[in-house]
């Protein structure tokens, strides 16, 4: 099972290639401006440098969100285009599930894992998982205050991580069960491919034409300022 995975759900841009769950190659860029042309180049490189062609792929996996509106549009449209052109299935993986896969094996069973993606101001995209990678509480957009996640924190240790966790640390530091990972964990195609390989059928998208990214909330725009004459 040869799976190409793509993740541009945040500022980073990454592609990876897995064969039967084993990572063959991965390219990652950390830039504020991900473009479709940049992504296409990375895809071509990771496949060819691993000794394969696009036609040999069995499926394309993509981080479906939550995350950056523009980033998700780029990755999902690119993945769908490849699926249509190559007649391959699309596998959609929650971005937060991919983040959990990066660290879950390092923590004991009594830990709850809470990946967080910054969603402007004091809002984050987050979800709760156990250390087996199973979702405990589904993805939501949460505005953080001193009472946030009180129910989860009252039952045991919760590990918060990701770029959204930094702004929560001061507010939740009074909670003894609130633990914050010092290392910054960013979404990556490396673990999107791992999750897709392990959970192939649950991730498979049946209606490719109508599939949309998991934005979680509407795209916010600002009104242009009036020109001063």
From TrEMBL:
Q: GO CC terms for this protein?
A: cytosol
Q: Which GO terms describe its molecular function?
A: transferase activity
Record's keyword annotation contains Transferase: yes
A GO BP entry is:
tRNA threonylcarbamoyladenosine modification
Q: Name one Pfam family in it.
A: TsaD
Going by the entry's taxonomy, the superkingdom of the source organism is recorded as Bacteria
Q: Does the keyword Iron apply?
A: no
Keywords of this protein's UniProt record, alphabetized?
Transferase
Entry's Gene3D superfamilies?
3.30.420.40
Query: Where does the record place the Gcp-like domain?
Result: 32-154
Q: Which NCBIfam families match?
A: T6A_YeaZ (TIGR03725)
Q: What is this protein called?
A: tRNA (Adenosine(37)-N6)-threonylcarbamoyltransferase complex dimerization subunit type 1 TsaB
Q: What is the lineage of its organism?
A: Bacteria, Pseudomonadati, Bacteroidota, Cytophagia, Cytophagales
Q: State the encoding gene.
A: tsaB
